[in-house]
Design goal:
The chain is mostly beta strands. The protein is 4% helix and 63% strand. A 16-stranded antiparallel β-barrel has the order 1-2-3-4-5-6-7-8-9-10-11-12-13-14-15-18. The longest helix has 11 residues, at 2-12.
C-alpha cells in the first residue's frame, strides 16, 4: 500500500503531458485491472474578453495484469481556447504506455517505466519541435510497513523549466497511520493529514513550478466539501515560431471552493468555483526565462468540473 501511494503521487505529474492531475493517474504506478475514463473542463470568465476554456479526456486501459506485473496504455485528448490570444486555440494529444513489476519478492520492491509521445500545440505534430516525448524510470524500495524510498529519473520535453533535461527524483514516504501520509523529496513533497474525523489537509508541490493546498470537510461517506489554492502553468508550442526553443506559457493562481462526491458505483463527480489572479501569457525558453514582456490578463471567476469513471 505504501508503495502504491508513494508511486501514485510521484508519477502524478511526471507521467503525462502537461503535468495534469487526474483520479485515474493513481493507477499508473501500480496499475489496476480496471479501465478508467475522465472528462474535465475549465471556464474562466473575465473582463476585456480575456477568458479561457479548456476541456480534456483522459483514459487508462490495462493490457495485462498479474500479481507481480502490469502493463497498461494511457492517453489524453484536449483543447484549450484563449479568447485574447493569437493563435487562440491549442490542442493536446498524447498516448503512452506503462510497465510495472515486483522487482524482488522478498523486499516487495517495485520497478517500472513509462513512455509517452504527444503534442501540445496550435498545430499538433506540425514538426519535431511540436512533438513531446516523456519517460520515467523508477524503483521503489520499502523500508518498513510504514515507509519506503523512491528513486527515479524523468525526461520530458515540455516542462515549465529544465526542459529536455533528465531530472532525478528522490523521495521518502512515511505513513504511520491512516490519518497521515507524507512524502518528502526532491523535487516533490506531499502531505495528507486527517487531523479530525471530518477534517483533512493536503499539500502537494513540485518545486518550484506547481503548488496545491486544500482543506476538506467530509459530509457523508466519501463526499467532501473543500477549499484550496493552486498555482501552476499550461505550456504549449506554436508552429512556425521564430525561436524553436520558445514555448507559450499560460500562468495563474486560483482560490476555490468545491464539492466532490460519487454519483454511482463507478462514477465520481467534482465541481469547483474559484477566482483566478495573477494571470499572464508569455513566450520563452522556460518559465524563468521569458523572451519578451509578459501580457497580463484580467482576473476572473473560474468554473472547473471533473467526471471520472472506473469500470
Amino acid at each position: 500500500m505504501v508503495i502504491a501511494k508513494l508511486s501514485m503521487l510521484l508519477l502524478l505529474f511526471f507521467t503525462a503531458i502537461g503535468f495534469a492531475e487526474g483520479e485515474m493517474l493513481g493507477q499508473l504506478a501500480s496499475p489496476g485491472p480496471n479501465p478508467s475514463l475522465r472528462y474535465s473542463g475549465t471556464n474562466i470568465f473575465s473582463a476585456g474578453n480575456e477568458g479561457l476554456h479548456d476541456e480534456a479526456l483522459n483514459w487508462y486501459v490495462p493490457l495485462s495484469h498479474t500479481e507481480t506485473a502490469a502493463f497498461a496504455a494511457t492517453g489524453k485528448l484536449g483543447i484549450t481556447s484563449l479568447q485574447s490570444g493569437s493563435p487562440d486555440r491549442f490542442y493536446t494529444t498524447e498516448v503512452g504506455m506503462l510497465y510495472s513489476r515486483i522487482w524482488d519478492s522478498e523486499s516487495k520492491s517495485r520497478a517500472g517505466a513509462t513512455f509517452s509521445v504527444g503534442s501540445a500545440a496550435d498545430k499538433p505534430f506540425h514538426s519535431w519541435n511540436e512533438t513531446n516525448i516523456g519517460s520515467t524510470v523508477f524503483y521503489n524500495l520499502p523500508t518498513s510497513e510504514f515507509s519506503s524510498w523512491f528513486f527515479g529519473v524523468n525526461y520530458f520535453t515540455n516542462r515549465p523549466f529544465l526542459n529536455s533535461i533528465p531530472l532525478p527524483i528522490v523521495a521518502y514516504s512515511y505513513s504511520p497511520s491512516k490519518s497521515f501520509r507524507g512524502i518528502f523529496g526532491i523535487p516533490i513533497a506531499s502531505i495528507n493529514w486527517n487531523f479530525t474525523e471530518k477534517w483533512s489537509l493536503s499539500v502537494f508541490t513540485i518545486v518550484p513550478w506547481s503548488v496545491k493546498t486544500e482543506i476538506a470537510y467530509t459530509l457523508f461517506g466519501i463526499s467532501q466539501a473543500y477549499s484550496g489554492f493552486d498555482f501552476r502553468q499550461q505550456v504549449f508550442s506554436q508552429a512556425n515560431r521564430q525561436n524553436e526553443t520558445d514555448r507559450l506559457f499560460i500562468d495563474g493562481k486560483r482560490f476555490y471552493l468545491g464539492l466532490r462526491s460519487p454519483v454511482s458505483r463507478i462514477v465520481f463527480f467534482d465541481l469547483s468555483l474559484g477566482y483566478v489572479i495573477g494571470r499572464s501569457v508569455f513566450e520563452g525558453q522556460s518559465y524563468f526565462k521569458p523572451s519578451g514582456p509578459k501580457r497580463y490578463l484580467a482576473d476572473g471567476w473560474q468554473l472547473m468540473w471533473n467526471i471520472s469513471a472506473r469500470f
